[in-house]
Specification:
Helix content is 14%, strand content 29%. The protein is an alpha+beta fold. The protein starts with a helix and ends with a helix.
Amino acid sequence: MSPRSLSRLLPLALAVHASCVLAAPLPDQGWPQHGLDAAETRFSPLAQIDRSNVSRLGLAWQFRFDRPRGVQATPLMVGETLYVSGPWGVVYALDARNGELRWQHDPLVPAHKAAVACCDVVNRGVAVAHDRVFVGTLDGRLQALDAGSGELLWSTQTTPPERPYTITGAPRVVGDLVMIGNGGAEYGVRGYLSAYDAASGELRWRFYTVPGDPAEGADGAVSDEPLKNIALPTWTGQWWLLGGGGTVWDSMAYDPELDLLYFGVGNGSPHDRDLRSPEGGDNLFLSSIVAVHAKTGEYAWHYQTTPGDSWDYTATQHMILAELRLDGRQRKVLMQAPKNGFFYVLDRETGELLSAANYVPTSWASHVDLASGRPVEVPGARYPAGQPAAVTPSQIGGHNWQPMAWNPLTGLVYIPAQESQAYMVKAQPFRIEPGRWNTGVQDHPLTTDAASLAQARQGMRGHLLAWDPVRQREAWRSQQPGMWNGGVLTTAGRLVFQGQGGGGLHAYDAETGERLWQSDTWLDILGGPISYRLDGKQYIAAAAGFGSSMHLSASALLPRQGLAANGGVFVWTLDGKAQLPEPQARPPMPPLPDVTANPATLQQGAQLYTRYCMVCHGAAAVAGAGIPDLRYSAYLQSAEAFGRPPLEGLLQARGMPSFAGSLDQDAVESIRAYVIQSARDTAR
């Protein structure tokens, strides 16, 4: 064939090739890690669903869990299977096309562990690698399951079983290591992060985040040197008697080029620094981001967001690794919006603070000094003895555990932000009660009348915040009807998906914040939504269910909802036709017994209820998350019956502990009077 003939055929050949390429099915695209990738960006490169067609999204399928309680997990999609954890750390493997159950694994957590789980019996997800599914259990075990069958391959106890530790966070896998932390700082534990061999479950290294008792010597852990040389000089008193805190209960990220693992460290135990470190000090590594070499756990650097934390300002919130152009230079950065209200951009190679600005109002500190890297505190914010301080953000934080997301196409970080204020005052007197919250901060009973509840709701606002990390300023916000909003997903379709704490999933224009679509599930979607492609179709998936700390302790302040039905997984696609669930209405409140209690008795009952009952049964005795609502309880009808669970341990097998060491019959009767009064107020 002549060169001229060949040149005539070349365009035709290219056209045929292009046609074949266009006709070829798009490859499957999963969601293999907690934040999609090791950088935890939560940015999906899929764009089949975009701003022009998102209004066509419909439910493809749903799968309901076989038990109630809180749901916080980010599902993973690997191969053609969607893996998700539900209440009590039960793991479900589902067909990603239709939701058919392939297997489930119940770790059989003892019910009594619910009593030391600060924020419900939740689990934020699993890790999948090496044909295995890894999950942490509420009672401190790390388990490896066969990804195909769910068979238990190994189980390792990562915490002392007799201590009030819990695990609610998702493991992360780096190479042949599985990383897991723990929770329990409110109950007086000492935090650490552990790395286990993925094949055998053998401990490879451990990094403690706060010093132990100096008289007992070193731990024999990889953290010994940094604790001795860096952390120990920042503590005073006998903090080890109170645990110290510093639990690593959620966020991690990993840079494979630097082989650096980053993890966030939580609050102190107790919260009030004057109790745990009476002569002051920064109390490292509390409220810090710590970088270690992943293979060995050896210390690389740290940055403390809240030195000497007294406000429960954890740095366990979601971290994102990205590259930003700052001052004409491309920088490898780590970004975090922790509870203290400031957005931080750090050089992830060195830990250098590059910028910081408040993303919500902050009354405790005016700004962060870039030269020293320290916040400039406002006088009085540390609530001196006998002097209450109005602190913003409250202990709930400007951003809690719900994950944010980074979209490199828009250059924006999308934060589930919230605004709230708390009055903090030292507990007088302070006494340690084993197995209870020991924060050192006075409890404040929530007034039950309708006007007070309405006023409290108005003081709590949530919004989806689009934040420019280069200019450190707000790009746009979308105000939410309530405060407790959910995690975020962003996509190459220039969309932002966010679940809400009033039920449902919403989609926004990533550039303008315009709400483009919503789907009502009548169940909270708090964990991060995900997106995956299978058989050429893009899907959006999210785990939903009532639960978490706000539903346990502050259900009275959330939008009115129906009964706490079992949660599950909801999956949407373009032109999906499946039916969404209908809300279940609460039954009418039963007749209330006649109890005559004077104001002093009601006040005592309110104080005791807030101290011992609120964390599970809800402020103002308004329960959520599948926990029994005491206003509806048959036990409420009789003083004798009401006293049996807390004083005799009648319901310990169901997770209700005995309070016989803290309460007597008169105290329980004052609590009963308060619950009856609340039932009357809130039923109006």
